[in-house]
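[PROTEIN RECORD]
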Amino acid sequence: MHQHVKHDRPHQDGARLDRVRLNEIVTLMAFAVGVAQSLDLPDRSFDVVTSTLAAHHIPDEERAAAFGEMFRVLRPGGALPAADFRPGGRRHTPHAFASAKRHGSAIPLEELATAAGFRIEARGELPVLRYIRAVRPLGT
């Protein structure tokens, strides 16, 4: 959905213009929830797919399939921002602590994404999280 928002007249109030743009963009958005390793969605149908604190819930043996599905449903040039707990991160929440006990080490987001065909454009770490921004290359 690469669309541009056009206005017939300029707005004096920049904040109002931002709200107008946001409202128009939100009407163009579609959200879908599904099982990551088996998405019932058409190929190349999304501009962005996100995975936030979800990968550690996917069974180890199904994570590669999940990243493959995310790649499949993204349009070329589409982005995958993904975040999950980082190894050795300070665990501040009961969920993070329980997750670390249940899953052991951190999820190799970068490795899973590149194996699925993504190009990593950004990576980083926060006190509890590690994140990537992966892109499906054009022509794939």
Q: What stands out?
A: Confidence is low (pLDDT under 50) at residues 1-12. Residues 67 and 116 are 6 Å apart (CA to CA).
